[in-house]
Amino acid sequence: MSLSEEPPNPTRSGRLHGGPFGRLFSARPEGSVYPKAEPLPRLLARVTDFILAALLVVTAGLPGGILAVLYLLFADGLFRGQSPGKRLLGIKVMHLPSRREADFRESALRNFPFALAMLLRLVPGWGDLLFAVAGAATVLSEGVRVLADKLGLRLGDLFASSQVVDTKVLAVQRPKLEAVRSGPSQLRGAARASLGSSTSTRQAV
Does the pTM of the predicted model rise above 0.85? Predict the structure, then answer.
């Protein structure tokens, strides 16, 4: 490798040690401005949201089950990228292309596997079994992806172009990102002001 070449970056290149299955370890080859959130707060937030959904089913029967499905589907859009569980654990879902908090659309795209598992719970007779199988498969497959991926992206995040981020990280990075975005416009404004001042001076002379 020549000195001018950039050294390999597993987060951006989508490969882990060049292995044949390296693509699985970086589902977003272009990388992200945000670091990976810790898995434990994500797990606890998901458990919290499932408990809230289960309470709806237990207390309100079939109507509660429908509300539980809708809750799991749209929960991440309730508090600007945070479900009640995520809000409690201090994590947030960000839409990567726009670098804004996830809304109800992104929430539905990333959470539909969990909402589908809850929907199967409403099937008469077979509901409990279907929910147990689908729920376990969803949690296992998505959990493996979260642990393996360099950014902690699961399948739902690929559909929604989203990433779960620690809110403490956002508090530090947001001013820097805003400064980077506003920097060019501020420079252009300063240049216009300087040019205008020079023109006025020449006219006065």
Answer: no
